[in-house]
Amino acid sequence: MFQALVAQVGDDVLREVLAHAEAGQFNARSWAYWHYRLGLASPDQVPAFPRRRFT
């Protein structure tokens, strides 16, 4: 399934999705997987989840 997604939209689009992700769009496992898969994080260096902001 993930290979089909990557084939459809490409790595650059997926990097943008991660860069602009909002709280609740990813679970911890998926967040880590996509950062590793797209070369955005090294082991043990996955960025923190996006946080909800209340104004």
Per DSSP E runs of 2 or more residues, the count of β-strands stands at 0
Which class do the helix and strand fractions yield? Answer: mainly alpha
* Beta content: under 5%
Looking at the structure, what is the overall shape?
globular
Low-confidence runs (pLDDT<50, min 5 residues)? none
**Terminal residue distance:** 38 Å
From the alpha carbons, calculate the radius of gyration and give it in angstroms.
12 Å
Tally of individual helices: 3
Helical content band: 40-55%
* Count of distinct structural domains: 1
| Topology as a string of helices (H) and strands (E) | HHH
- Major pleated sheet: none
Mean pLDDT: 90
Could you list some keywords that capture this structure?
about 55 residues; mainly alpha; 3 helices; globular
